[in-house]
Amino acid sequence: MIKIEKRNDVSPSIYFLTPILAIFLTLFGGGIIFYALGFNPLEALKFFFITPISDLYGFSELLVKATPLCLIAIGLSFCFKSNNWNIGAEGQLIFGGIVGGGVALLFYGHDGFYVLPIIVLSGAIGGMIFAMIPAVLKTYLNTNEILVSLMLVYVAKLLLDYLVVGPWSNPEGFNFPETRQFSESARMPILFDGLRIHAGIFITLITVFLSWLILYKTYLGFQIKVSGLSLKTAKYAGYKGKTMIIIVFMISGACAGLAGVGEITGPIGQLHRNISPDYGFTAIIVAFLGRLNPVGIIFASLIVALTYLGAETAQIFLQVPKYTGQVFQGMILFFLLGSDYLLFFKIKFLGLKKNEL
Amino acid sequence: MYKNFLRYIISVLFFLGVSGQANADFKVGFVYVGPTGDHGWTYQHDEGRKAVEAAGIKTTYVESVPEGADAERVIRQLAQSGHDLIFTTSFGYMDPTNKVAKDFPNVKFEHATGYKREHSNVSTYSARFYEGRTLLGHMAGKMTKTNVIGYIASFPIPEVIRGINAMTLAAQKVNPDIKTKIVWVFTWYDPGKESEAAQALIDQGADVIMQHTDSTAPVQVAEKAGVWSFGQASDMQRFAPKSILTSIIDDWAPYYVERSIAARDGTWKQQDTWHGLKEGMVAMAPYNSAMGSDLVKEVEQLQKDLASGKTHSFTGPIYDQKGNILVAEGSVADDGMLAGMNVYVKGVEGDIPQ
What we know:
The complex is a heterodimer. Chain A is mostly helical. Chain A is built from 13 helices and two strands, in the order βαααααααααααααβ. Chain A has helices spanning 12-36, 41-49, 56-81, 89-106, 115-141, 145-165, 200-217, 219-229, 231-236, 241-268, 279-289, 294-318, 324-344; strands at 2-6, 345-349. In chain A, 48% of the residues are buried. In chain B, the strands form three sheets. Chain B has a six-stranded parallel β-sheet with strand order 2-1-3-4-5-11, sandwiched between helices. In chain B, strands 7-6-8-9-10-12 form a six-stranded mixed β-sheet, sandwiched between helices. In chain B, strands 13-14 form a two-stranded antiparallel ribbon. In chain B, helix 6 links the parallel strand 6 and strand 7. Chain B is globular and about 60 Å long. The N and C termini of chain B lie far apart (74 Å). The relative contact order of chain B is 0.13. The chains are: A mainly alpha, B alpha/beta.
């Protein structure tokens, strides 16, 4: 007989140590996989996790990659903490990109310091409005926000397809599915010459700080946490559940929209069909790996971004298949969830004694 | 005398060997948009890479690189890690390729299907796939019973429209009653969408299906439905042995080998390459004998004529859908017109999505 019991007390230090344990287990598991593929595991792990960030350019690329992940995950943490399952951050990112990109095209050829802030703001509002759709439908029509937000991803993708193929395509671009390159005034300022790290990182850092402030120092943050722990308690305490649901979705959507607009005004510089390599979905892993905690999410976004870069370097130097990066991401999540389970539940092996049953 | 000559030859060969070894570090990088196992676009580029490898040059590839912000990093990493020549094999890599090329003037870059050569170390190359489409049109016009040819199109860019037009013109020549029906799927690779499109075209009466997308789904649908089909990019015969009449094969190998050797030996120069049947960048898979030996012979002759330049895919008179003349009688479309083609010829149904 195996019996599973809930543990009553989980120490907070172990709670925050398990993600680190998960990462070490992933490294170990990854080493075994590399060995099975016929690579020297230590060398492969070196190419995977150290080579990518061994120079300034690599470090800047890590931040470029982590910036959108961190932003989206921070936003998602508001939703997840309050038991609202927003799975459609990818759609909110794309819609934010569409709105921000549209404004950037509107300002094509304009100079002025005001151009970029307007674009960034409109991107955030775009993502926010798009996220309000599942929120409003959930609160007033009782629909399932997982399905609605997920389906809206496809709506956003198809809308982007339509725009870049048709009305917004570059008039000099031979009908290729992409817009013009935005004007300089619509681009995120580059922080260092020759690197791609851009001003978007400040937006992310400010967002992280504000999130921490809201989550831990305001009444709203308290409501979010209580609703997450027990909806009934929240109701009993008289919290306005509907308003809160809409607010967390708005925050989450705005963050995703910011991420989208940061990508198109940052490293990409135009709208086309592939503005996001599924950042919105990967950010879900980041959010949970970071324990829905702003500081945790910063570290988690760096680690997950590193798995992307590592997959590229390992492929270039060792010809390791590209998908090992995804295997690593999967393993991190698997080990994290696995150790969580053991953290919150005790497994008892009872043998065959029948005295207590 | 002879002995001295031999000695001379041997010493020259020896020196060549030595200088070849001095270039042992020479490496060529490839950036792919899809997985090497897609049996279409990327698969063929990887076949080309293998040919370079077989010629004794080291190669590296990175597959499934998204055409967004990641492309620039991958291209830059290849340049930084000592690759001397880098092939970027998808249109979406155009701006990133040019950006990286600016920072690495000593590295050569080759971008497929693009039109921007902003720096002297960037070349572009593409293939005259429309010549293959002309052959497909000839076969389709002869084989169709319903006079409806179904065409699965990806994006309304000149390359795809050129293919549709070339096919339609050739089919009309042998069968004036044919109509070309098009479904735009707005993707290069999506087996689900492609098979839906194939089914929709068959439901609309098409008994010949062709595709400007890369998966094997359409030919498999055609095989099931018992209609004719054509493979794309690689020989897809084994996926639909009864249905496939032939495949247009993208053969990048000769070009990749030539350019890699040129770059290694220091003779590489910027250029804009557009090769076709003549140079072998466009090749045809074996013709299906089910279409009859007469037709096979006809098509083989047409293939020879296209290769030699005796026949041109776009020979006037050519009219657009409204009946305006595009190419006058007795002349052929020039490359500039082909490169920017954005209207359908007469006989194609529907409008180009704008």
